[in-house]
TrEMBL record, chains A, B:
Species assigned in the record: Passalora fulva (Tomato leaf mold)
Organism lineage: Eukaryota, Fungi, Dikarya, Ascomycota, Pezizomycotina
Pathway entry: Glycan degradation; xylan degradation
The EC number(s) this enzyme carries: 3.2.1.37
Leader sequence segment: 1-18
Domain of life: Eukaryota
Protein's recorded name: xylan 1,4-beta-xylosidase
Keyword Signal assigned: yes
PANTHER family (alphabetical): BETA-D-XYLOSIDASE 5-RELATED, SUGAR HYDROLASE-RELATED
Pfam families recorded: Fn3-like, Glyco_hydro_3, Glyco_hydro_3_C
GO molecular function terms attached to this record: alpha-L-arabinofuranosidase activity; xylan 1,4-beta-xylosidase activity
Length: 805, 805
């Protein structure tokens, strides 16, 4: 019988491929489903989906467990591809079909999240995500895309070497949470709307931030994370997605967590995700990463057979398999009694109630059905792609050269591997943009004479390729070097091995700096590079970090250079000295410094040495001052403003704070909002990002250096103008996480610092007894970790000896 | 003045590019040089080259120091490109120009050296190299290539992770030396001929075998090697090249050795290479790697300025800079008095006397001038490319399935990422072959029905791509899986991070093994993979290792499978268990096991655990026995043959052995030749490689497990036939290397073992006092190591803390 199931499943799964062209909407008007409750728009999604799945045969259920879902032709249920991508615009992916010509041949391509993260502007992110969901709906209406998208990647960018850090907004868990809340709103729409705009997918759950470091591949890596780091650092953005932003989907990750592959972990997918975080709507589902169910079997070697591996995954709560491993091996698992029909129904009802909620069965009743090609690449979208790049670009060094107006008579040497960047500007998970406005294009638009030379990074690996660089520099007034890294060294399946600038680039910049001409360096790419040599070189006048700036990236960079726009981006990750990579193996998941291992700690919160540039660093073309006004207060408020830019002596009682709040989640209880008056004391109009960091002596040592608890970007402060940023703090902002993963309010001293080198500060104290705000469910003691003795075929690399928790 | 030099040099160097099209021979009949002694064919090369260089101006001398040499148009001396490649056939490289159509559109492409190494057949290597030099001369005569080629790569393949191990014949220094001697004969011709066929280039001198491991790039790596390991392991092949095979050129490497970049190391390039090894002909030169002179400055930070870096390199003995760093910065170095004209003359005279010896100035007097397109891709060359692949392919497992004759009625499922390999078969440093005979092509030639499926490794990363694999397997009689690794994971600038089979491939093979059909696995690529799971799987009947088999690789593989040819290749490297990469960092250059670091030792000589397959392993389709006959003897010979396959009780006196020999190099003194009678006791005609290993208790502990001292491949032993292999041993075969690097003959017990699981053995003893055969010049105590305090921008990776010697 097992052979029968396998053969049949394969045959049907294979036929799904041929049906992909016919993707679209089921016909509830005249099709076979018209009398099925799934077509009853007055019923709730659960009821509708349940009716649909009840009409499936067992074989049809088994067949529809993969990302390429054949549907049920017998019922008029068309094939559906679950795998769409839209990381920074509708992107090439199995479910997305760009046209070769005419309508739908491109979509707006925004900067990579790492650069949008640097904007620290949640409104911007919401606007960008709204454009993406609008364009995705237009593609869907033309039968060119599905309705669920496997974005965002919201794993914290903890280690500069990570090849996929570019997909994330940065290293800080509060920042990620705030960013992702805005993003999900833009992608999915208002949670109370009858129809979701799209389904977003928070990935990769959880503790995934390694591609291939020294013998450790993401497919087999067993991340050892203690509960404190897990709750404090790796989980917050996912809690935001599930508990607070009602995201439609999750993706489990390739790695194992403390001995259990995440896609086969019931503690993670049931106890935490669905129970602890109340992510219990049937419209919500978990997909595997591609092909992480196969990886549960090999190389994780979790489950003694392929059938057991798929059964463990399905029962743990992974509803969709990106791949065919479910379709191939669930029939055998069923045959062996390892799963039952209810297990299949649970997964399928989640899938299809999600589609119901997207209006998949409701035809033109769905308002988004009117979106079309005219709604793609609108002037608004183009402007927003430009704005997002401008807002993220971060000024790291400026000796006064910038802004540098460029007139028609000026000649610019534009040099380096990013000088004529086109696809490079997009980073990964890209679509097809309407245009590539490269730095070279942008420089030429200024009216200047541009002498372009690619320099190192071209196909010729020798210094022969440098000769045209000297020629370009010799005949130019200004030298702009655009380099750094790109997807040739940081990419999916490719972590970096160093965070130093490449020697040829440094040598070339060093030589260019001897020409006696202004030199501007553009440091591109997501992972930071140790720019110490450029800081120390007095002849390098300015350094800008530009990430992956998207379709209009070159224009954005030159708008900053010329002063058409003022820089106000902030580094979303720490720039470490190059030696950092020799101090911490990528496999070390701990955040706190460790004198035994020699780790100096991870992220600006725990790193105990001097960074090259700290998290949040960013210069302006003007100066700002800050003063803290009387905050709106909780009931226990008592506060006195001691001077213009420092406030102190407020004190609060912990039990009062916690008993006066009645939200279901105490960490969301408001604490207070600090109004910060920001004044532009210079002469250049500029945005300003108010970053609120919390520091102070509260809770047990070791204590973080500080931690971001609130931020707000203010726009267009003209010379002399003041605006007020409102930094909201909740009780969760004040809480720390104990070794068990519980969130605890501790009595002690607190200080809110405005900006990295604080422009203002307010001190306050909490008194009374410490109080657990949120209790963390511990992994069960009898949790099964690698039930088979792991073979040695896939051992981890040097320095990666694993100690089970 | 410095500015003048720099500008002028750049202008002329730039103009070299335009002259490249006109490469060819100087006109000694009517050109401006006709009365220069360089055109006097009766003068010796040194005199001729000196006359030429004396005619150069200073500026012209400075301009001709790079690999793209502009020549001297004023003198009718045409531009010359020094950079040609011919690793396994005339290859794409700056100095080689394939035609788009018509003649010279391809050249014979042999297997990668790693597979040719597995043949253990020096005659084969000489033949292959002769074809390469013949084809290269034909290209040269059509003005499509120069006359010097930057091959061979003769660094020992010590670590399976090394991305360029494919370019070498294997891990054993004796094997490499013997191989390279044959290769250089084929490439350069008889050393007494008036005209060299080509100039070969032994690279990379020395201790270069790391691309980018965990923060360590080849460009910056400082290899810490003690003198014992250096002489015993890293140097022998280079000594063979320089001292014994009179190779025309050397290439210094990217790495530093014990604190000094090799291209700037006078101890290495002068004391060892030129003085110790008598490599003193002016026709011999050293080129930098590309662009290792730039790397001397950055990232090595050796030399306080660019001018000092180039001066140190030139004065150390690097005659040609691959790149433009010499051309750019030697003018400044000259201006600052860091080099003088004599330094330039030395380098230039070496270059041009080399060209004189190649007949560059002698027109049609050179016999090779008649070689033409008809001499490329001859039937002999095609057969040799096929033969080289057949001889190298190594049988690792066979349950009796092979040989498997394939008839017209048979159906074969040919599955995996190598099943339809074309370019993959060539590996790196490839040219354009006349054809790609893929495994798929070869399978189809058998007359069988071939069901092909690429499986994992295709663009679709998910198990969706597996579906056609099951379909192919279902309808076939035999399953052949062709996979492993290729240049996507082992390549220049890319070391591997694991030596395990990829999980998707293992999973797929495992599933295929459940079909109840014969399964044959082809393990392709250079670096060994831990094939333990395939050995342990009883349903995998056969395992063949095929390396990179070249243009006819598919046919060679199927000739072995079907029994048209019998396998006799031997593994040229150890196949380690996957855990090995977690036991030894790539940066660890030591060979001996180390209980402190946990290293189990490197290579079959020192590894103290159980390998998956040992160096020299290889199965046959028949059985062989060996017996040792009375050897030819040195004067001190006394020997008695105790039984048919074991000989013992010979004893020799060390002082007699050393005093009766008068060769200039005592390690080359003959010791004895052991005649080994090999008998094919089976029914299948087959080659047999007689490997002679030396073991025994002589010299201080720790002692190597054994070491290869001689080998010979016997051909076409028919059923029952006996042939005699002659295993020659010299005094150097018996010597060990002490901690100072001296070669020493020690009294003690010796055993010569025939084959890895010995078929025969002979014991003998050496008596008397230990005797230093060869004294090693120590690096000077005042050697300058990194005169600048190294910056931290380029620190090495985790676990790579360097301790200077």
């Amino acid at each position: 019988m097992a052979a029968f199931f396998i053969t049949s499943a394969l045959a049907l799964a294979g036929s799904a491929v041929a049906q992909l062209e016919g993707r679209g909407f089921p016909d509830c008007g005249n099709g076979p489903l018209k009398n099925n409750t799934v077509c009853d728009t007055t019923a709730d999604p659960l009821t509708r989906a349940t009716a649909l799945i009840n009409a499936f045969t067992l074989q049809e259920k088994l067949n529809n467990t993969g990302s390429t879902s054949p549907g049920v032709p017998r019922l008029g249920l068309r094939a559906y591809t679950w795998w769409q991508e839209a990381l920074h615009g509708v992107a090439d992916s199995p479910g997305v079909n760009f046209s070769d010509s005419g309508p739908f041949r491109y979509a707006t391509s925004f900067p990579q999240p790492i650069l949008m993260g640097a904007a620290f502007d949640d409104d911007l992110i919401r606007d960008v995500a709204t454009v993406i969901s609008t364009e995705a709906r237009a593609f869907n209406n033309d039968d060119r895309a599905g309705l669920d998208f496997w974005t965002p990647n919201i794993n914290p960018f903890k280690d500069s070497r990570w090849g996929r850090g570019q997909e994330t907004p940065g290293e800080d868990p509060y920042h990620l949470s705030s960013y992702v809340a805005a993003l999900i709103e833009g992608l999915q729409g208002d949670r109370n709307d009858k129809y979701k705009r799209l389904v977003a997918t928070c990935k990769h759950f959880v503790a995934y931030d390694l591609e291939n470091w020294n013998g450790n591949y993401r497919y087999q890596f067993d991340a050892q994370v203690n509960q404190q780091d897990l709750v404090e650092y790796y989980m917050p953005a996912f809690q935001q997605c599930a508990r607070d932003s009602n995201v439609g989907a999750f993706m489990c990750s390739y790695n194992a967590l403390n001995g259990v592959p995440t896609c086969a972990d019931p503690w993670l997918l049931q106890t935490i995700l669905r129970e602890k975080w109340n992510w219990t709507s049937e419209q919500q589902w978990v997909t595997s990463d591609c092909d992480s169910i196969q990886n549960v079997y090999l190389p994780h070697e979790y489950g003694s057979s392929r059938e057991e591996a798929v059964a463990l995954s399905l029962k743990a709560g992974t509803d969709i398999d990106c791949g065919t491993y479910y379709q191939e091996h669930l029939p055998g698992a069923y045959e062996q009694g390892l799963i039952n029909v209810t297990d299949l129904d649970t997964a399928l009802i989640r899938q299809y109630s999600s589609l119901v909620r997207l209006g998949y069965f409701d035809g033109d009743a769905v308002p988004y059905r009117s979106l079309a090609w005219d709604d793609v690449n609108t002037p608004h979208a183009q402007q927003l792609a430009h704005k997002a790049a401008v807002e993220g670009i971060t000024l790291l060094k400026n000796d006064g050269l910038l802004p540098l107006p460029i007139s028609n008579g000026t000649s610019i040497a534009l040099i380096g591997p990013w000088a004529n960047a086109t696809e490079q500007m997009l980073g990964n998970y890209d679509g097809i943009p309407p245009y590539f406005h490269s730095p070279l294009y942008a420089a030429q638009q200024t009216g200047a004479t541009v002498n372009y030379a690619a320099g190192p990074g071209t196909l010729d690996p020798t210094t022969n390729s440098w000769l045209n660089v000297w020629a370009a520099a010799n005949k130019s007034d200004i030298i702009v070097f655009a380099g750094g890294i790109d997807n040739s060294v940081e990419a999916e399946e490719m972590d970096r091995v160093t965070i130093a600038w490449s020697a040829p680039q440094l040598d070339m910049i060093g030589q260019l700096a001897t020409y006696g001409k202004p030199v501007i360096v553009l440091q591109m790419g997501a992972g930071q590079l140790d720019s110490t040599p450029l800081i120390n070189n007095a002849n390098v006048s300015a350094l800008l970090w530009g990430g992956y700036p998207g379709q209009d990236g070159g224009v954005a960079l030159f708008d900053i250079i010329t002063g058409k726009s003022a820089p106000a981006g902030r580094l979303p990750t720490t720039q470490y000295p190059a030696r950092y990579t020799s101090q911490v193996p990528m496999t070390d998941m701990t955040l706190r410094p460790n004198s035994t291992t020699g780790s100096p700690g991870r992220t600006y919160m725990w790193y105990n040495e001097v960074p090259v540039f700290e998290f949040g660093y960013g210069l302006h073309y003007t100066n700002f001052t800050a003063s803290i006004e009387t905050p709106s207060s909780p009931s226990s408020y008592s506060y006195s403003n001691s001077n213009s830019n420092s406030a102190s002596s407020a004190s609060y009682d912990i039990s009062t704070l916690t008993t006066t709040c009645t939200t279901p989640y105490p960490d969301l209880c408001p604490f207070t909002t600090f109004p910060i008056t920001i004044t532009n004391t210079g002469t250049t109009e500029s945005d300003y990002v108010a970053l609120g960091f919390l520091a102070g002596t509260h809770g047990p040592a070791p204590r973080p250096n500080k931690r971001l608890v609130s931020y707000q970007r203010l726009h267009n402060l003209t010379a002399g103008e003041s605006q007020t940023a409102h930094l909201n703090l909740t009780l969760g902002s004040l809480a720390r996480v104990d070794e068990m993963g519980n969130k605890v309010l501790y009595p002690g001293e607190y200080a809110l610092l405005v900006d990295t080198q604080p422009l203002a500060m307010v001190n306050f104290t909490l008194g009374g007894e410490e109080k657990v705000l949120d209790e963390w469910p511990q992994p069960p003691a009898d949790r099964v970790k690698f039930p088979r003795a792991k073979d040695q075929y896939f051992v981890g690399g040097y320095g990666s000896e694993q100690v089970l928790e």
